[in-house]
Write a structure and sequence with these properties.
1 helix; disordered C terminus; two-stranded antiparallel ribbon
């Protein structure tokens, strides 16, 4: 919960080992595939030095940030709509060279980084994180019950 829009919105702490020989840089992309099949990115961090093998919670000053699917530069904590589990995938790429990206961070999207990494990816690994909102419990992430019509009674349940 700490890493979602229902919590503090902190970035996840991560640690990795086993980079292939020739790794010069890393890139980290976090995305979710929505029910319509659209990829929504939540975190783009690239130009991570090859000497870095972990990111602390609320990482700062490591790598270069890109923009989320909403155009927000930096980590956008997931805040999914509706009940049920949602899967977010963090993919770490080991690169033979840093991606060559120009332009403002607000235009560095998921697709831009993927295209810039082509021909440089030595290896990648995925971490899937499943989040379920606490709908109907009165806790964070809860959605209020439907309102009754003005002056009326609650509609009968079907």
């Amino acid at each position: 919960m700490d890493y979602t829009g229902d919590g503090t919105g902190a970035t996840l702490p991560l640690h990795w080992t086993g980079a292939p020989a020739g790794t010069k840089s890393y890139a980290l992309l976090m995305h979710h595939l929505d029910p319509e099949g659209v990829t929504k990115s939540y975190w783009i961090l690239y130009n991570i030095p090859a000497t870095v093998t972990s990111l602390p919670k609320n990482v700062k000053d490591i790598g270069t940030l890109g923009a989320s699917f909403k155009g927000i530069v930096g980590y956008e904590p997931p805040h999914s709509k509706g009940p049920g589990p949602k899967t977010y995938v963090l993919t770490l790429y080991a690169l033979s060279a840093a991606p060559e990206i120009t332009g403002p961070a607000s235009r560095v999207t998921y697709d831009v980084v993927l295209a810039a990494m082509q021909g440089r990816i030595l290896a990648s690994t995925d971490l899937s994180v499943v989040s379920t909102r606490n709908l109907g419990t009165g806790g964070p992430g809860d959605v209020p019950p439907p309102r009754r019509p003005e002056g009326g009674k609650a509609a009968p349940a079907n």
